[in-house]
Automatic annotation (TrEMBL):
Sequence ranges assigned to domain CUB in this UniProt record: 1-94, 118-277, 293-417, 433-559
Statement: the UniProt record of this protein carries the keyword Amino-acid biosynthesis: no
Protein name as catalogued: CUB domain-containing protein
Any one GO cellular component localisation term in the record: plasma membrane
PANTHER family on file: CUB DOMAIN-CONTAINING PROTEIN, CUBILIN
Region (Disordered) location: 650-677
Key words, A-Z: Disulfide bond, Membrane, Transmembrane, Transmembrane helix
Top-level division of the source organism's lineage: Eukaryota
Amino acid sequence: QNFRCTYLLNGKTGQRIRLLFRDFDIYFGGEHCPYDSLTIYDGPNNKHPIIRKICGLQQRIVIYSFGPSTFIEFNTTSPAKADPRGYSLDYEFSSRYVDVLKLMDNQLGITHLRGSECDLLVRSNRETTHYIHSPKYPLMYPANTTCTFIIDGLQGEQNLEEVMLTFEKFAVLSETIENTNSIYLRHSSTDYDDDEPCATSYVGIAFIPTTIKSVLSSGEESNYDVMLCDRLQNGSHALGPYISDGPRMVLVFSSNEKISNGDGQKPLGFKAKIQFKTDFGIPGKPIGDSNQCMFQFMKPRGWFNSPRYPANYPLDTNCTYIIKAKPDEQIQVYFEQFALYVNEHSSSTETSCADFLEISDVFIKDGVEILQLQARYCANTFPGPTVTAFGSHELRVFFRSDHEGTGNGFKAIYQIRKAFTEEIPTKPLARHCGQRIARTNDLTSGWLVSPGYPIKYNKDLICDWEITVRPNHQVLLHLVKMEVEGSMTAESVNCQNAVIRVDAEYGIGAAQSVREICGTDKTVIQPIISKNNTVRIRFFTSPDKVNGLKGFNFTWTEVKKITEDDECLYPTMYLCTYTKLCIDARLKCNGDENCGLHDDTDEAHCNKLENAADVRTVLFAAIFSGCIFLFISGFFGYLFKKKFEKKRNKRRRRAKFGMKHQRKPFRNSRPITKADPHLLPAPAASRLTHHNVTTDIIPLSTEQRNEKSPNGEMSRNINPLFTHSLKPIDDRNTFYG
């Protein structure tokens, strides 16, 4: 306890010292060894850099000095914290170890990892280029040597680089390999053994983060993303380039056995070029310089994004995305995310749109590229779906960020499809709808609606309308109804899945005049007047999914801006009071507002006429209804009168003939049997007499006795004894038996 012991190892010039701890057991008081420790300095005293400070229980530690001297210091504290064994080490002075100075070749950014024989750290100084090679290159490399090259690009909020490694020469010979140009791609977790290719000498490359972590933690017993050996001929694909999946790459050179004569060719070993390039994190083919953010896309479907998306994009960055299609194809683009930085404390347009994205169509005329700007999007505008203009087969997207703030950026999907045969469809198709509308003498105003309005629109729609009026006239668009998914306010626009684009300056080439419209609040959109006699309206919906609202409804009107009132004095014209627009007189009082913003004089002047028309309409309706009522009343009165007369005539007839045919009240009579022969008429009595043994003659009924005599007088021969018991028989002399 309280013990200090030092060792000074001095070799000759050109020699290095190798330390091998066969056993090491010193009390472990913490990660930085604050109590008992052994410190190794890379020099003759403790003023030199520390190679390593060690404590705890260690196994087989191997340490190399950079030069010919090493200073070792052992310290213990009081009281002793345990009873460890201490340490035992072997040392060796030798000049056969790798000359690190020659290996680094005095290159800026390449440093030796202290304590190792030949491990180097290669660091970028922003877009720099470095060279590494095997020990003693171009001569035979030493046997039983392992050198690890850790290659690090810049990584931070503003800088993110990737590593590109290309072999200029490669001849790492392995005795178990008989063929040439050997390359082995490894992505499994199995270890290499002597029976595998490149078993004696090889170069292993790790450029995937998980593989890099495994190599740095396991040392020689590791897997690699790529394993190379033998002599590679110029032009071989195995020479690279190899690009890291991140800012780091690790290369390991290992020689296990000495090859006395090699293959008789020079050089031996390897030499590689390392290039640090800015890693923009953008798919596609890089074009231009390594630090230039320019990418080309030619696959039928893909995506592109802002640099380092979904992380914040760097400051002061310009990126260009070139999407190319074939001559008979068109390009469709829609955005999944769009979040640019906006300076909330700035009111000027320039600072609020310092970060922006532009979309342009590319036309080729006489071998010269002509860019036609579609739109520019700032932080407050989420781009809607779009497609290349008719005749354009290339889309160019430009993104710019300034030096102030940053955001998550954007991600967009593109797909290349067969182009439409017409710019404006003559007949609406499944995906391409719209029409050309031309002003005629009978058509000076009209309606323009979305497909199926007011039924829900579908996804993956591209619609084009073109409205043309007479020269020196303009087109006035008025939004009557709008239900298109998205939102619009005075500060922001989000038309991610569906968008209406109105180009009021069609043919002039001013892309900033294109209005993007969506949402359900039509009051945000004021009436639009074209700059010339043509206006273009386009409607796009996302190919993936839309909610499918009702759509939109526009009215259009041919108008003419005038400066003097006498320009609109013809009987066929009407002058709007406030907007000073001259319209067709037939549009007055047609139920639509055709005069523009805050001017309804073409309809307001119709109030008196409308009121008079209303009075006439009510009066006519009353007269017509009265006539109908009188007709119906007279008809039913006539029917009632006829029915009443019929009943009256019937009563008169009954009164006239009622004495002869009085109606007798009906009574349920008891059936007449053989016990009542005196109640039966003569024919019935005779029948009963024929069949009855009593031979009694049944007297006549009361009706028969009361029949008139031939002289018209009633018979009076009524037996008073039977009068009270007689029961009537109907006029048909019906009887019951």
